[in-house]
Specification:
The protein is 54% helix and 0% strand. The chain is mainly alpha-helical. The longest helix is centred in the last third of the chain and has 36 residues.
């Protein structure tokens, strides 16, 4: 018998032959093994909050400034007029 035939007769893989991923060396897959994973939004719950906070604050301010600023300017002008008089 040739040496290579003896070496491969035991069912072993040949050198350089792909064995599979870790834990899967050609055997039957295990049953009853549960794999869990975590979704991306659970892994990084605060992803993008600073960016969103800055631009959301600016958007809200821009939408409300025309409702708040004119009455404040009128009240300030009235108070300055009352103080001078």
């Amino acid at each position: 018998m040739r040496p290579t035939q003896i070496r491969f007769s035991s069912g072993e893989k040949a050198p350089g032959q792909y064995l599979g991923p870790w834990g899967d060396f050609g055997s039957q897959p295990q049953k009853g093994v549960t794999t869990y994973s975590v979704s991306a939004n659970r892994q990084r719950p605060l992803a993008g909050t600073m960016h969103a906070a800055i631009f959301n604050t600016w958007r809200r301010f821009r939408g409300q400034v025309l409702y708040i600023a004119p009455p404040l300017l009128i009240a300030y002008g009235a108070m300055q007029w009352a103080i001078e008089k």
